[in-house]
Structures are given as structure tokens and as C-alpha cells.
Amino acid sequence: MKNLMTVFQFEFRGLLKKKSFVITTLIVCLLALIGTSVPTIMKAFEGEDTPVEEPGEDLGTLGIVIENSALEEDVLKERLPGFTLEFFNSREDLQEKVLDGTMDSGYIVTSPSSYTAVVKNVSMFTGGDFLFDEVLRSYNEDLALEKEGYNPSEVKEILQGISIERAEEVLGKDSQNNYYVVYALIIVLFMIVMFYGNNVATLVAREKSDRTMEILVTSTHPNSLIIGKVLASGLAGILQAGLIALSLFGGYLLNRGNYSPEIQEFLKLSIDPKLLLVFLFFGTTGYFLLLFLYASIGALVSKVEDVPSATTLVTMFSMAAYFISLFTLNFPESLVLKVASYVPFTSFMAMFVRYAINSISYLELALSYGILLGTTAAIALLSVKIYRYGTLNYGNSGNTIKLIRTALKESKEA
Length: 414
Hints:
Structural class: alpha/beta
Strand content: 5-15%
Number of domains: 2
Distance between the termini: 20 Å
Low-confidence stretches: 50-54
Helix content: 55-70%
């Protein structure tokens, strides 16, 4: 293992000097800076805001048909401020205007407490027409109060004077505050696992394909080669993700003065340092676990073209962890999440999610990380044996699990 640092430095420098790494990093960082600078760019093109006299708020145009004199037109005009109302004599005229888009929507009032909404299309997410419901409900409430001898205005003034004070004491975790942070970190972790996992598998397979591996093993121990390659690829991925994150944060700091109050309020997320610590420990360990698997499988194949199909099983592990983590973000007590938080191939994401949205003991956290760390060490040793086998065997093809079994069997016999 004395050559480990030499291999690591050589591979790491090689990755940093690659045009694909440099160009990709520069482009993504530039896009991050541009994306966070959009409000500033828009303000520069729009120029200084000049105060103008704002007309009355126009919320849209509504078509109305009142049948059998069910309501007075003035009632609707009074209770729908901000809307432009156009009254029609027949349903057919209203339907024609809604169809050609002249009217945003239409209403056929059949009685003081019933109506038919006329719309052109109804999408899957179209909700009920609560606006017109409220108009007719308010009107009928006023009629009922007047009938009983009450003044509707006085009653409403009394009711509006009632206020409720609400305070919240969170005994466990505030998952709402962590939701978007966790969501973003899961996506970032998944992306670097997929990209650098395939990258290290392709790198090892290419060295074997062009016989470079045969030269390397004569001067350097196979253990140092595979561990050095994995550490170099892993660190390169972490570095690239860190540079992109710094670009996003720097762009935000430079342009935050031009962000709207709503966006600034949204971005005021208080990140728990303990949450980031859990992410770093679990994410980094699981990341290297999968990189070792990718590297060992890359050593088994003889052609670079076989890498995608050979690494399908490892890719499925990554995708399982990703989808389980995302789909259970809103279900803190999910049994699937609990089980996945102890399975080493999914716990590096699942336990992080579970810690963020639920209250778990340090014992559970330590147990999960212990299993993950132990599995990572075992996979690293396994990958070393597979790499040794791969350096001396060419023409390997077929089922990945069978190749791994053969590699382990021959390493024992050796």
C-alpha cells in the first residue's frame, strides 16, 4: 500500500486536467451564476422603476347569465370587485364567448343559491369554483340575517373582530423547514454517484481493454491501484459538487438585494449543522461504497462497451435509494423508510432523510452508520480481490453476479 498516495495523486491530477471535467465544471458554475443573477439582469434591462398611476386591479373577465331574475346585476358587481362582468341574455351567447376565449369563464345563475359554471376545458388539477360559491353564500347569509332582523354589516364587523392566536411547540423535527434542503442534497448525491460511478468503472475497463493494466500491476500493487482510483474519482466528484454549490451561494450573495421579498423569505432556510454532519458522514461513506462496486465491476469486463450493462445492478441500488428517499419525504413513519435506513445500499440516503424529518435516537443513527461503514470496508476488500482477478483474466462476459462469484472463488484458491 506504500504506492497508494502516488496512485491517488496521479489519478486525481489526471481527472482535474481532463477537458471534460474542466469544461463541465466551468459551464455548470457559469449557469449557476447566471441563474442566481436573473433578477439583477432583468432589473438592468427594465431600467429604474418609474412611479405610474396604477389603474384598478383587473382580475379577469366573467360572463354572466341571470335566469328568471334570480339576482340583480348590481349584487354581483358589488361582490366581485376587480372583475369585469359582461351580462348575456342567453346560455348560447355565453357559451360561444367562453369557447372563443373572450370570457375567462362563465356563470349561469339559476336561483339565489344555485348556478352552473361554464368553462372551456377542465384539466386534471382544476379545482372547484370557490369564488362564485362564496359570492352566493355571502349574499344568502345577508338575506337570512335581514329576515331575522339583524344588520348584516354589524354582524360581520363583530365576527371580524374575533382573532385566534396560534403558537406551536415542536417536540420533534420540523420537516417543513428541512424539506427543500433535504430534497436538493439527495438529488446532488444521486447525480455524483451516477456520474462518477460510471466514470470510475469506465476508467478501469479502459485500462484493461488497452492492456495498460498489465503494465501498471508490474510496478504497483493491485490494492493501491484500485483504492487510489476510487479515492481520486470520489474526491473529484466532491470537489466538483462543492464548486457548483459555491457558485450558487456566491451568486445568491451578490444578487440577493434584487430578489423579490417572496424569494428572499423562501430562501431564509435555517440549516441544522447536525443535519449537514449526518449528510456528510452517510453520504460520503455510501458514495465510496458504490464507487468501489463500480470499480470492481469495471475490472471484470474486457470491453468498455460492456460497462453499462455490467453495472446495471449497482445502478439499481442507487436508484432504489434515490426513489425511496424522495417518495418517503412526506411519510416520516413509513416502514419502507425505516427498513431502508438500515440496508447499507440505501441507508446512505434513507437514514439522512429519516433523521431530517423524524426524531431518532443516536443509538439508531450509530447502528445504521456502523452497518454502512462495515459494509463499505467489506466491499472495498471485495473489490480488491475482484480487481486482482480482473487484471489476469480477459474475455469475461455474462452475468455480473457469476463473474463476481468466479473472482472470489479463484482469489481464495490463489
